[in-house]
Amino acid sequence: MRKTLYFKDDDTRLSFFQGNYVTLTNMRDEDIEKIIRMRISPINISVHTTNPDLRVFMLKNKRAGKIYEYMKRFYENNITMNCQIVLCPSFNDGKELDRTIFDLAKLYPAVKSVSVVPIGLTKYREGLTQIEGYDEKSSKKVIAQVTKWQKRLKKDLGSNFVYLADEFYLNAKMPIPGASHYEGFPQIENGVGLMASFTEEIELAKKDLPKKIKDRNVSIITGVLAGDFIKKISSGLMEKYENLKIQVFPIRNDFFGEKITVAGLVTGSDIINQLKGKNLGDEAFIPASMLRYGDCVFLDDVTVSDLERELNVKITPVNVNGFEFISKILGII
Q1: Cβ atoms of 285 and 219 closer than 8 Å
Q2: Are the C-beta atoms of residues 324 and 206 closer than 8 Å to each other?
Q3: Domain span including residue 231
């Protein structure tokens, strides 16, 4: 992997400037006071649970249990927070999830939003606590539980407040809610509501499409999770333009393990190993989220140039933006 990925970062300054999520386990009282004094807001916090003992166990840090105490101080001093709960079956789900949502809702509106995302399990788990991932049945159970909270909080707070990651709906084979459900997408950088936003942009972009385009033969490279979603969009475009050919290649994650299905964790080496020798057309598109922000390097230090050389095709990164996606696929920008 890239050398920088071996460093564990929990810096509240990066939370403010870049949107990183922090656990606050390295915070002392004077650090909390400094955040309040300097008005470092908003802060993105990985809460996971408000049960002190459970949080200490989950994070293997004796200071982890002070999270709610810190958050109450932020609340009292009008520091805005966005929170995430990485959900682990049999640990912080069920009644523990109810407790956490209830506790965080008491800090509204300082706690602006809460995302619930499923734990990502790599194949490198030797010596670690045994945890199962979320399948169709367990994902449906989480959706039902959080939906009840959303209805209650919409009535009490005027906001859904808590939002589920797209993965839960995809795993459950259930429709992703429409854009209005996400109330301005406060957690979109955490991948929550990304597909709803993308779909909305695609539909808007379709209203202003050209009648004709030049002949196009392109490929789209993505993760397994988004594969069917991208294929559906691509089919719609090919129905409109007879001279447009789009191939979609969902990449199996051999680097981290097949349970990792999101596009942002696909490595360059996996793309090369699975697509080398294939006819990818005139141009291949990848999500920009596969690359280091502002750079052309994958998680495994493979570069876009390496990919182009190995696959013998032009590689173009595309942001998760429906307007940009349509324009680049059709070759109209």
Answers
A1: yes
A2: no
A3: 200-330
Number of domains in the chain: 2
Q: How far is CA 187 from CA 37, 170, 300, 323, in A?
A: 26, 18, 27, 20
Measure Cα distances from 19 to 78, 164, 218 in Å.
18, 18, 33
251-270 tens-digit pLDDT: 999 999 999 999 999 999 99
Per-residue pLDDT for 238 more than 70?
Answer: yes
Q: Helix crossing, 268-275 with 304-311: angle to 10°?
A: 10
What is residue 8's predicted lDDT score, i.e. its pLDDT? 45
Q: Quick check: pTM over 0.85?
A: yes
Residue with token string 């008005």 = 39
Last residue of a domain, one of 192, 215, 248: 192
For the CA atoms of 11, 12, 16, 22, the dihedral, rounded to the nearest 10 degrees, stands at: 80
